[in-house]
Predict the 3D structure of the following.
Amino acid sequence: MKSTPIVELRNITKRFPGGVLANDRVSLDLRQGEILGLLGENGAGKTTLMNILYGLYRPDEGEIRLRGAPVHFHSPHDAIAHGLGMVHQHFMLVPKFTVAENLMLGQPSPRAPLLADRRAVAQRILDLSAQYGLQVDPHAPVWQLSVGQEQRVEILKTLYRGAEILILDEPTAVLTPQEVDELLTILRNLATDGRSIIFISHKLREVMEVCDRIAVMRDGRLVDVVLTAQTTTQALSRMMVGREVMLRVDKAPATPGEVLLRIQNLHAKDDRGLPALRGVNLTVRAGEIVGVAGVEGNGQRELEETLRGLRPVSAGRIELCGRDVTGRAPRDIIDAGLGHVPSDRYRTGLLRDFSVAENLALVTVDRPPFTRRGLLDMAVMRSRARQLVQAFDVRTPSVDVRVAALSGGNAQKVVLAREIAHGPRVLLVAQPTRGVDVGAIEYVHRELVRRRDEGMAILLISTELDEILTLSDRIVVLYQGRIVGECPAEGVSVEALGLMMGGTPSHAL
Amino acid sequence: MADWSSLLTLAFLTTLLISGIRLAIPIFLAALGEIITERGGVLNLGLEGIMLVGALAGFMTAYAVEQSATPWLVGLAPWLGLAAGLLAGALMGLIMAVFAVSLQTDQVVTGIMLVILGQGITTYVYRQQFGSLTARVTTMPSMPIPGFAELPLVGPIFFNLDPVTYGSLFLLLASLFFLYQTTWGLNIRAVGEHPGAAETSGVNVAVVRYAAVLLGAALTGLGGAVLTVAQLGIFNEGITAGRGWIAVALVIFARWRPERAFAGAFLFGIATALQFRIQALNLGAIPYELLLMLPYVLTLLVLLRGDSRSTAPAALGKAYVKE
C-alpha cells in the first residue's frame, strides 16, 4: 500500500521577483500512508515548495498530480477541498476564540447553515481527539493553551476539514522534548490510519526518528530522496549543507573569573500585567557562558527585556559589573557594560530600512567617532562598517544596502558585530540562531565561544536545547518565571533537562 | 432661591428617564454600528459625518414625500426617511471601505476626511435646497402598548415609546445574536482579531471587512435619520452636535459590547435630559453653558475607567496585506 504515490510533484520551478530561483525543477512523490521528511537549511526552498503544493504560490513551471490526476490550485481553499492540510510554522489561530470557534471558521455549519453551532463542532472535536490521542478541550479559549496544545488544534483543524495529506512546517521548533515525542506519536497514529504526511524540518534527529523516507533540499534543488533505514545523520547533514558540518563546537573548559552579572530575586510582569518573572536568581562570571533553557513563554522574553531596561522591574536587583542598574534606562545599562543580541532582531535589533552601516553604528551613534559637534560623520560610519563587515564575515554587496535585503544569518551577524564592537563586558544573547542558516549558526557559535575565552560574561537565552547544550558551561532552567534547576553542562542528560523544562524541580530527580 | 426639591418628584424622574431613552437612541445606533465595524478590524472615525449625511438624507426624503401629498404615501414618510438614512450611511461606508480595505489608506485620516466631507456636503445641500427657510417634517408619535402603557411608572417609561425606540431595542438583541451566534458574526470577529488566521481558514477577509464597514455605517446613518425624522422634525447645520464623536468614545467605554454601549448611551441621554431640565428650572446660580458641558464631561470621566487595550480587537485599524 505504501507504494502508491498520492502526490506527485513534477519539475516544479519557482522564480521570485528579483531572479531568486527558489525551486529548480524539483520532482518529488508522496506515497499513501507514509511520513516523508523534507530536510534542508533555511532558504533551501522547502517552504516554497510546500506553499506551491498548498496553493499559496503558483509554480512557474511544472505539474502537480494528485491521485494520478493533474491539479491546479489557485488558493489554499482549492487545496483544502482536495484533502490537503497545512500546519504552518506560525500558528494561524484566533487567540480570543475557543478551539471550537477556530475550527468553525470558514467552514459550513454542520446543521443550520448560518448558525454558529458550537455543540456539534465540539462533539466532532472530541471524536477526532479520542481517535488520534490529541486531548484537546473544544471550549477552551486558545490564548489559554500551551504551544503544544495549540499545535494539536492546528492538526485538528486540518483533520476537521477532512485532510488526507498533512504538511507540517517545522512543527517541533516550539516544543519541549516531551511534547516532541507526543507529536511524533500522533503523526505515527495518523500515518497508520492511512494519512500521508510531509514533515518539514532541519532537525536531523527527529527526521530520522519518525520518517519513512527523507528528501533533502539545498539551494532550491532536490539533492536526493533516501530511505531512513539506509542513511545516517552524518550523510544527511552532508547532503543538506554540501560539506561536513561540525555539529559540536570545540571549546576548552571555561575559566570563570569575577561575577559580572548578578540577578537577585527579580520580579517582572508580562504585557497583560500578570507576573512573568517570579524571583529569578542568577549570576554570570567573566569567561563563562550560562545557558537559560526552557520552553518558550516561561519568562524568557521578560527576562531579556528586564535586563536590557526595556521592562520595569517590580522587585529585585540587577547588578552589572559591580553597579546597581535596577530600573535604569537602557542607555545607562549599555554604558555599564551590556551588549545585547535580541531574540527578535527585526523588532528590537535592527532598523530594516536603514543601511548596514547605519545599523552597525546604532548603539553609539550619538558619540565620537560617529558624531562630532552634533554632526554625523558618514565617512567614519562607512569605514567602521567596512571593517566590521569584514571581521564578522557579513555577506553584503556593500555597507549601503538596506538590512532588509540581507539573509537572516547575515542580519544576525550585523547585530552581533555591533553589540560586540562597542566593547561590553557582559553579553546578553537571546535566540541567536533563530531563522539563521547552518553556516551562520556555526559562525555565531564559534564567535560566542571566542568572546567567552577573551573574558566576556555571556548569558544565553535559548529555546533550542541543542544550542544550550553545545555552548553553555552552566545551564539553568527557566520555568514559569523561576529558575527551577541548575547544573554544569558537562554530562547533563537531555531527559533530565526536559523534565525540568516541563516543571519538575531538579531536586525531585 | 431655586427649588431643588422639584427635581426629586416621581413625575420628574419619569420624564427624565423617558427623554433619556429618546436622546440615547441616535448615539446608541451609531455606537452599535461602530462596534460591528471595529469588530471587523476597521476603525471608522467618520461617524459624525456619516450621521450628518444620514440625518439630511432622511430629512429630505421624508420632506419630499410629505410635500408630494400622495395620500397613501404620506403616512410612510418617516419610514422612508429612515430607509434613506440607512442607505446614505451605507454609501458613506462604501467610501470608507474602498479607502481602508482596498486602498489600505491610513484609517484615522480617512475617517476624519469622512467627517469633513459629511459636514461640508450637508451644509451645501441643505442651503441649496432650503435656503433660510425652516422646513419641518412630522415626527413619529409614540406607540403605547395596550394593557401595559397604563401601568404606573414602568408604563410610560417602557411601554409608551415611539416605534424607533422599540426597533432599537430589537436591534440590540439582534446584534448580540448576529455577533455571537451566527457564522457571519464569527467571521467578522475573526477578521478583526487575526485576519491571517481567517484567510487561511478560507474566509475572504476583504469581503467580510466591506460587509462590516457597510453594515456599521448604515446603522450610523440610521442613527442620524432617527434624530431628524423621528425625533426633532427639523434639520440644521451640524445638527448632530458631536454625537458621532460621543459614539466613538462610547465604543471604547463599552469595550466593544453592544449591551454596554446601550447602557452608556442611556447614561449620556440621561445626562443630556437632566441638563435640559436644570436649565428649564432656571436654577440661577449655574450658567447654562456649564450645564451644556455636563454630558461631555461625563463621557470623559467614564473613559478614564481603566485601559481597554486587552479587549480591543487585536487587528483594529490595521490594513490586511496578503502575503
